[in-house]
Automatic annotation (TrEMBL):
Similarity-based family: Belongs to the TVP23 family.
Membrane topology value: Multi-pass membrane protein
Compartments, as annotated in UniProt: Membrane
Name of this protein: Golgi apparatus membrane protein TVP23 homolog
Gene Ontology biological-process entries: protein secretion; vesicle-mediated transport
Keyword terms: Membrane, Transmembrane, Transmembrane helix
Source lineage: Eukaryota, Metazoa, Chordata, Craniata, Vertebrata
Pfam families attached to this UniProt entry: DUF846
Record's keyword annotation contains GTP-binding: no
Organism: Balearica regulorum gibbericeps
Length: 193
């Protein structure tokens, strides 16, 4: 009869600590998070400091384009999948037709997400901020008549903009219209205020 009165109680509130830790946003993939920002920020820093460090335009251009290419590959193939569970690619059929595929990781049966909030914030902050910086660089190169740097800056806009577009399509869904989604979001924000 005494066994009926016994109930499972966690020692020293261990279950509470686990639930508190799971609510916290911790970074599960620190190497992926580092490289997600490393190549992006390095390309921007090299662009800003290039004329101070060396007088060789070719060396600067090659370094920046290599960093941008490494960033494009790492974000498209590794960090997007690990940090937020999204990926996109181009598939060519036997007929030679090109199809873009946008995927999002499905939520598990328990309803738990495999990516943390901190990783998601790092991913989207880097993914959105850096192309905006390259657009600013493009306007400054255009208006200051630095035509030779315009090609490098356009590469930055194109490579990082392609990743941004691909991941927005993955997040929103490939079938939905992005303009209607943006209009709905702005309408909701306006109504809240």
């Amino acid at each position: 009869d005494s066994s009926d009165d016994i109930e499972d109680v966690s020692l020293f509130d261990a279950d509470d600590d686990v639930s508190r830790r799971s609510k916290k946003s911790k970074i599960r993939h620190p190497v992926a998070s580092f490289f997600h920002l490393f190549f992006r920020v390095s390309a921007i820093v090299v662009y800003l400091l290039c004329e101070l460090l060396t007088s060789s335009f070719i060396a600067c251009m090659v370094t920046i384009i290599l960093l941008l290419s490494c960033d494009f590959w790492a974000v498209k193939n590794v960090t997007g999948r690990l940090m937020v569970g999204l990926r996109w690619w181009n598939q060519v059929d036997d007929d030679g037709r090109s199809h873009w595929v946008f995927e999002a990781r499905k939520v598990s049966a328990q309803g738990s997400k495999t990516s943390s909030e901190a990783e998601s914030r790092i991913f989207w902050l880097g993914l959105i901020t850096c192309p905006m910086i390259w657009v600013i660089f493009a306007f400054s190169a255009l208006f200051s008549f630095k035509v030779k740097w315009l090609a490098v800056v356009v590469m930055g806009v194109v490579l990082q903009g392609a990743n941004l577009y691909g991941y927005i399509r993955c997040k929103v869904g490939s079938r939905k219209n992005l303009t209607s989604m943006a209009t709905n979001y702005l309408g909701k924000q306006f109504l809240r205020q």
